[in-house]
C-alpha cells in the first residue's frame, strides 16, 4: 500500500480494521462457520440470541371459522460479553505518520494472528466444553474413524437440521486416518473447487469436513450444526497506528486496537464431541 511522501513524512488516510479482519479470516477455521444471529451491540456488554426449537405451526383453514391462532415459541437468550482484549504494541523511533509500510504490514499481520488465535481457541473451547460428548473414549483407527463420524452426523440429522449447515471439524491425526479410508477418499475426489478453497477436505454422511489444527489434544473431532453456534464480536477501537502522547516516550507510536467478543453454543445436542482419554 503505497503512500505519498511530502516533506519526508507519510500521510496515512487508511484505517486498518478491515485489513486486520481480512488477515484474521483464513485462520478462523472453526469460528468462521458460526452464525451471527444476535441482537444488540456487543460493546454494550450483552446481546440477545433468538432461540427456537420448533417451527411455525401449520393448521387447517376453515372458510367460516378461519384458522387456530398460534403463538411463536421463540425466546431470547441473554449473553454477557466477557472477553475484552486489546493490542497495544510499541513502535519505537517512528511517529505514526512515518512508520514504513513494511513495518505496518508486519505488525498488522502479527496482530491479526494473535487476535485470530484467541478467537479461534475460544470458539473451539465453547464447543468442546458445552457440546454432547460421545460415550466412547476409544481412540479412532483408520477402520473406525469414518463410521464413528458418520454416526455422530446421524445424531445431528435427527434434530431436523439442514445438512448443509452441519460441519465436521477433525484433528490432524483424524484427518490422516480418514485419508486411509477409501469411502472418504472417494468423497474428497468430487469436492468442488469452491469448497476446497473454503478448506473442505471431504464429506461424511452429507456433512462437510474440515481440518483444524487447534482442537484440544484429546479431541478427535467435533460435529456441529452451525445454526446453534453463535459468534459475537465488535471492535471498541479499530486497530490503527497512533502517536504515543505521554511524558515518557519521545518519537514513538503504537499499534492499538480493542475488541470484545463471545461465543455461545445454544443447544448442547447440536454439537457432538469425540474425545479420547488424556492418558491415551
Overview of the molecule:
With about 280 residues, the chain is α+β, with helices and mostly antiparallel strands. It has two domains: about 10-55 and about 70-130 and about 230-265; about 130-230 and about 270-275, hypothetical protein PF0899 fold. It is about 25% helix and about 30% strand. The chain is built from six helices and 13 strands. The chain has helices at about 15-25, 100-130, 145-155, 170-180, 180-190, 195, and strands at about 5, 10, 45-50, 75-80, 85-90, 130-135, 165-170, 200-205, 205-210, 220-225, 230-245, 250-265, 270-275. Strands 6-13-10-7-9-8 form a six-stranded mixed sheet, with helices on both faces. Strands 5-12-11 form a three-stranded antiparallel sheet, with helices on one face. A hairpin with an 8-residue loop joins strand 11 (about 230-245) and strand 12 (about 250-265). Mean pLDDT is about 85; it is low at about 1-15.
Question: Can you tag this structure with a few keywords?
Answer:
globular, six-stranded mixed β-sheet, alpha+beta, 2 domains, three-stranded antiparallel β-sheet, hypothetical protein PF0899 fold, 13 strands, 6 helices, 280 residues, disordered N terminus
Amino acid at each position: 500500500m503505497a503512500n505519498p511522501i511530502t516533506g519526508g513524512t507519510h500521510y496515512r488516510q487508511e484505517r486498518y480494521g478491515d485489513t486486520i479482519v481480512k488477515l484474521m479470516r483464513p485462520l478462523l477455521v472453526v469460528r468462521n462457520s458460526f452464525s451471527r444471529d444476535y441482537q444488540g451491540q456487543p460493546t454494550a456488554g450483552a446481546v440477545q440470541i433468538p432461540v427456537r426449537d420448533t417451527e411455525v405451526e401449520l393448521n387447517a383453514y376453515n372458510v367460516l371459522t378461519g384458522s387456530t391462532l398460534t403463538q411463536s415459541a421463540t425466546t431470547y437468550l441473554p449473553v454477557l460479553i466477557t472477553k475484552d482484549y486489546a493490542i497495544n504494541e510499541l513502535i519505537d523511533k517512528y511517529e505514526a505518520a512515518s512508520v514504513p509500510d513494511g513495518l505496518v504490514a508486519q505488525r498488522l499481520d502479527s496482530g491479526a494472528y494473535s487476535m485470530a488465535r484467541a478467537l479461534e481457541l475460544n470458539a473451539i473451547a465453547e464447543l468442546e466444553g458445552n457440546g454432547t460428548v460421545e460415550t466412547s473414549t476409544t481412540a479412532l483407527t483408520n477402520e473406525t474413524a469414518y463410521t464413528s463420524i458418520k454416526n455422530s452426523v446421524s445424531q445431528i440429522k435427527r434434530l431436523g437440521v439442514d445438512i448443509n449447515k452441519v460441519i465436521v471439524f477433525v484433528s490432524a491425526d483424524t484427518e490422516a486416518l480418514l485419508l486411509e479410508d477409501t469411502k472418504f477418499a472417494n468423497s474428497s475426489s468430487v469436492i468442488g473447487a469452491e469448497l476446497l478453497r473454503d478448506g473442505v477436505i471431504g464429506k461424511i454422511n452429507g456433512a462437510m469436513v474440515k481440518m483444524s489444527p487447534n482442537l484440544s489434544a484429546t479431541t478427535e473431532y467435533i460435529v456441529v450444526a452451525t445454526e446453534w453456534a453463535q459468534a459475537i464480536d465488535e471492535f471498541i477501537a479499530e486497530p490503527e497506528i497512533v502517536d504515543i502522547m505521554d511524558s515518557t516516550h519521545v518519537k514513538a507510536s503504537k499499534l492499538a486496537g480493542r475488541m470484545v467478543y463471545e461465543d455461545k453454543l445454544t443447544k448442547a445436542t447440536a454439537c457432538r464431541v469425540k474425545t479420547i482419554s488424556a492418558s491415551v
